[in-house]
Each structure stands twice: as structure tokens, then as C-alpha cells.
Amino acid sequence: RGLGCSARSAREDSWLKSLFVRKVDPRKDAHSNLLAKRETSSLYKLQFHNVKPECLEAYNKLCQEVLPKIHEEKHYPCALVGTWNTWYGEQDQAVHLWRYEGGYPALNEVMSKLRQNKEFTEFRKERGNMLLSRKNQLLLEFSFWNEPVPRDGPNIYELRSYQLRPGTMIEWGNYWARAIRFRQDSNEAVGGFFSQIGQLYMVHHLWAYKDLQTREDIRNAAWHKPGWDELVYYTVPLIQEMESRIMIPLKISPLQ
């Protein structure tokens, strides 16, 4: 009996250590340099706009009139990756994802030019009257994730956002560099990003599905692949908070 209790205690102790003691190679560089794509220098901006419920239709119409002009203007080194309304999650919310080719200098160039653009200035003023709140983050791409490229629809999109424990970004990247291979069979993986400015230690995974049932089927299928359960087991303790948004693209979104 004593040996049985001792063995059980050892297993429990080992399980607890797996949660709190994880071996990670010593950091010798910023995690942005270790985890981001090296072949590109793109910077991403993720915007969340909480719209007054009675203004959502007018907000969408205004965005569909103005945003393509910025996206298509060759003198602005930026591109609209996707624009959505949240369907399930926080209601009356718009989400926009922009790419700046050339990193921070490109961002500064675009912002400087837009300040001189009277149409955009009027757009921001009119848009501001429709909003309850807004926030944004500047992001980099994970090197092991798909490049977000335009796709045909119709699709629904899931934005899964993870607030990680400070100091765990490298470890998250190490695990997900393997985990992403389990989630690419059905072409559902759109893009993976981590924050540089705004709320820090934030990770965003963007997925595309035909519908909610397809999402359920694909996610359930992952659990039948050897190794997926282990990767989930070791990444869950790295998370402080997580959120899932199901989003519907606007007509102007390159991601349909």
C-alpha cells in the first residue's frame, strides 16, 4: 500500500512539474527576431472598432466606400488583408487587418500621407461619430504560419486570440511550429501573428471555414492525429486568457 501511494505521489508530482517547469533554450535575441518571417519585413495592424448598434450598417457602407481607395492606391505601401464584422463574440464589432510592406517606415509613410488626405480626414471624423471604442495592435507574422493571401468565399473566419504569460512567447512558438502541421490539411490556416505594440504577449490565429459545422468537424479531426493532444497539453499552461471570434467578411475584404 505504501509503495502504491508513493508511486501515485510521484506521478502527481511529475504532472505538476510538467505544468510549471518547462525547459526552454536561453534567449539570445528578441523574440521578434527569433519568431518572425525573415524573408519579409511586413508589419501588420489589427484594428477593433466597437460600433454603436444603430450605426453598424452605415459604418460598413462608409468603410466599403473609402477603404478600397487606400488599399488600391499605389502610392500607399499598405494592403487591406481582411475586414469583417464579428458574428459570434463581441457584438456590433468591426475588425480590420492591414499589411505594411516595409515595416515601420512604411507605416510612418502611410500615416503621414493620410494626414494630408482630406477625404480620409473626413472619413475618420464621420467614422468616429459611429464608434463606442476602438483599439489596435501592431503585429508580426510567425515564420511557420501561412502567408495570409486573398481567398474566394463564402467562408466564415475565426480569430482566436491568446493572452500569454509574460516570457512564454518563444516556448509558444516552439510548440506551434509543430502544431500548425496538424491544421493545414483542409486549408483552414490563414495566418498567425504576435503583438509588438499594444497589448503585449498577444497571439492571434486566423482560420477560415466553410461554416460552423465544418469548423467543428476539422477541429475534432485534429484530436485523432498522433501528437496533437500532447502539443495542446503543453501549450495550455502558457495561456492567461483566450477569446474566439467568428467573423463574416465585408464585400470589400480580400479574404472572402
From TrEMBL:
The keyword DNA damage does not apply. InterPro entries: Dimeric_a/b-barrel, NIPSNAP, NipSnap_domain. One of its GO terms (biological process) is mitophagy. It is found in: Mitochondrion matrix. The keyword Secreted does not apply. Keywords: Autophagy, Mitochondrion, Transit peptide. This is NIPS2 protein. It comes from Polioptila caerulea (Blue-grey gnatcatcher). The gene is Nipsnap2.
